[in-house]
Amino acid sequence: MSNSLSDPLRPSDHADGAADVSAPRLGPVEWLRWAWRQVTSMRTALVLLLLLAIAAIPGSLVPQRSADPNGVTQYYTDQPDLAPILDGLSLFDVYTSPWFSAIYLLLFLSLIGCVIPRAKHHAKALMSRPPRTPVRLSRLADYEKHSVEASERTDAAAQASDAIDLAAQQLRRGGYRVERDDSRGTWSVSAERGYLRETGNLVFHIALVGVLIAVGFGGGFAYTAQRVVVEGTTFVNTLTDYSSFNPGRFVDGTSLAPYAVTLDEFQVSYQGFGTNAVGQAGDFAAVITTREPDGQSAEDAIRVNHPVDLAGDKLYLLGNGYAPTIVVRDAEGVVQYRESQPFLPQDTNMTSLGVVKVADGFPEQLGMIGFFYPTQDVLTSGAYTSTFPDLINPVLTLNVFQGDLGINDGTPRSVYTLDVGEMTQLTGGSTGTDSIELRPGETADLPNGLGTVTFEDESATIASEAPVKRFASLQVHRDPSAVWVLVFAVLALLGLLTALFVPRRRVWVKASVRNTAEGADLEFEYAGLARGEDPALRAAVTQMAERHLAALGEPPAEQRGDRRDAPTPDVN
User: What is the C-alpha to C-alpha distance for residues 419 and 535, in angstroms, rounded to an integer?
Assistant: First the structure.
C-alpha cells in the first residue's frame, strides 16, 4: 500500500511518496527574481563585506600606482618575473581593478536591496500598536505574580483599573509604547520598547551605503600627485610640474587650485654617538613657504603624519635625502650641466645613489652613476660606506660613462637610473681608472680631457648653512569625499552601538479580582519577553513590579509574604 493510502494527509508527490517529484520550470523572470533574492539577502551582504576586506589585503602588501608609482617601478626591478604576473592580475591597481569593482558594486546593490524592505517593515512596525496581552502570562519565563488586598471603600474592579492606569503611566515614562487591553474580568496594559535597536541597525546599513557612495563617487574627484623638491626650489600646483599625477576619473588636471610651494629648509636631527639609538632621526620637518594668486604667502612645516592643508589639498612628507649640486663643464670651461640632483638613500646611514645625465655639449652623451656618503668611512674590504646619516665627512664618488643615454627615441626614462647598455665606462670598475672622488667645493678632471666636474659647496646659499642641499619627497592629495566618509563612518558606529546595546522588550501588567471569604484581593501579574538575548529582562520585570506596587502603597518585597518567583514555563 502506498504512503498516500496509509496517510491521507500526505500528498502523493511527497519526498517518500510513490509519485515522482517534479519541480516547476523556471522562466527568465523567475530566475531573475531568484537571483535578486540571493543578492539582496543579508547573508550575501555579509559574505561580500568579508570578500571586500580580503580583496583589499593585496593593496597593503604590494605598492599601488596611485600612491607609490616609484615603488611599482622598483618592484619591477627587484622582481622582474613576478611583477608582470601581478600587473596582469591588477594587483598594482587593486582599488580600480575589475574584480574589486565587481565586489564593491555587488555589495552596494546587496545593501540597498536589504535596507529598502527592512526600512519599509520597520516603518510599518513603528506605526503598529503593541500586541495584545497573552491570556496566560505564566507561560513566560520572566513572570511574577503578587496579591494585594483590595480596599473596602472602593469597588475592587475600579481599583484594578486605576492600578493598570498607574502602570501605564510608569511604563510610558520608561520609554515604552503602551496599549490598554481590558477584557471581561481582567484589566491589563501591553507595552513595548526597543524599536531604536532596529533603527540603529538600519542607520548602520544606510551609513555603509553612504560610505560606498562617498568612496566610489567621491573618489572620482580626488587626485594624488608627487614631487621631489630640493631646498631653495619651488613647484607650482600644475600638471606639468609633478613627477607623477594620478587623477580620479572626473579630474582632467586643468582646474587644480593655483598655488606655489617653496622648500626653504629641511630640518632633521639625529641621535648622536654614545646613545642607544645612534643615527636615528628624532624629527623631520620640511619648512615651506606657500604663495597663492592673491599674493598672500605663509610659512608652515610639513612633518610625518602632520600634513599641511592648502587650498583644499593636503601636503604630506613621504621621504627625504641629500641632493649634491654637481656642475659639469666642457674642455673650454663652459657649463653644460648644473643641477642639485636628488640621491636616493640606500640604508639608514643615508648612503645614497644618484645619476647624472648630460645630454648635450660633448661629442657623445655623458652619464654618471654616483654614491654619496654623508659620513664616509672605509670597510675592511676597502669599499666606502657611511657610518652616520649627518654631514660629518661628506664624500661623493662618480663613475663616468660615455655613449647613448637612450633618451632620443622618446622612450620615458627614470631620472634615478642609467641604462649603460649602449655606453662605455670611462672610470671605475675594470677600466683601470679610479672613480672620481670629491668633497664639497672640489673639482676633478673628466677622463680623456672632456672637461671637469665640480661638487659645489652650498653652505652659503641655503638656510641650514650645510655644504649639501637636502630634498623632500612631497605628496599632494585631494579627496573631497573624506568629510562625507567620516560622517557616514561615525553614523555607522553610532548605529552599530545602538543596535548592540538597546534591548527589544515587551512587558505586560495584568490585574484581576479574586473574591475571598474575607472580601476581595487584587492579583497583579507582571511578565516580560525579549526579542533575542536580554539577560537584564528578569531584573527589569522585578523592578517594574516593585515600582508599581510601591506606588500602590505596598511594602517592600522583603516585608511581603505573597511574592512568588517565576514558575516553570508551561510547554504543553
Answer: 72
Cell output for 196: 531604536
pLDDT band at 12 (very low <50, low <70, confident <90, very high): low
Give Cβ neighbours of residue 505 (< 8 Å, ≥ 6 apart). Answer: 192, 193, 194, 528, 529, 530, 531, 534, 537, 540
Give the three-state DSSP class for 343. Answer: strand
Residues 398, 453: contact at Cβ < 8 Å?
A: yes
* Closest-CA residue to 479 (of 168, 181, 216, 110): 216
Q: Are 83 and 75 in contact (CB under 8 A)?
A: yes
pLDDT at 410: 67
Q: Would you place residue 1 in the very low, low, confident or very high pLDDT band (cuts 50, 70, 90)?
A: very low
Local structure of 89: helix, strand or coil: coil
Q: Which residues contact 512 (CB under 8 A, 6 or more apart)?
A: 160, 185, 186, 187, 522, 523, 525
How remote is the C-alpha of 198 from its chain's centroid? 26
d(CA 210, CA 433): 66
Residue with cell 520572566: 142
- Convert the pLDDT of each residue in 352-399 to its tens digit: 999 999 999 999 999 999 999 999 999 988 899 999 999 999 999 999
What's the burial of 208, exposed, middle or buried (CB within 10 Å: 0-12/13-18/19+)? buried
- Using only C-alpha atoms, what is the Rg of the chain? 40
Closest CA to 541 of 191, 194, 198, 195: 191
User: Torsions phi, psi of 383, nearest 5?
Assistant: -75, 150
Residue 469, CA atoms < 13 Å, CB-side half-sphere: 26
- The Cα–Cα gap between 454 and 329 comes to 8
